[in-house]
């Protein structure tokens, strides 16, 4: 992945310029936000209203 960087914002462990967060720092939840035609990954300390947090060994997700 050519543009994966470590200089990520907001709790991302890895990210890309196009897709935002690809993975999160420990204990944070990974959420996909739809912006127009693309989806951006964000890492949050808790899930947004209406979402349910699920913790997996490799990632925590909001569904």
From TrEMBL:
The R-spondin Fu-CRD domain extends over 10-63
Query: Which Pfam families is this protein grouped with?
Result: Furin-like_2
Query: Keyword annotations for this protein?
Result: Disulfide bond, Glycoprotein, Secreted, Signal
Enumerate the subcellular locations listed in this protein's record, separating them with semicolons: Secreted
- InterPro entries per the record? Furin_repeat, Growth_fac_rcpt_cys_sf, R-spondin, Rspo_Fu-CRD_dom
Q: Which GO terms describe its cellular component?
A: extracellular region
Q: Major place of localization?
A: secreted
Q: Sorted alphabetically, which PANTHER family does this protein's record hold?
A: NEUROHYPOPHYSIAL HORMONES, N-TERMINAL DOMAIN CONTAINING PROTEIN (PTHR46987), R-SPONDIN-3 (PTHR46987:SF1)
* Protein name, as recorded: R-spondin Fu-CRD domain-containing protein
Organism this protein belongs to: Mauremys mutica
Top-level taxonomy? Eukaryota, Metazoa, Chordata, Craniata, Vertebrata
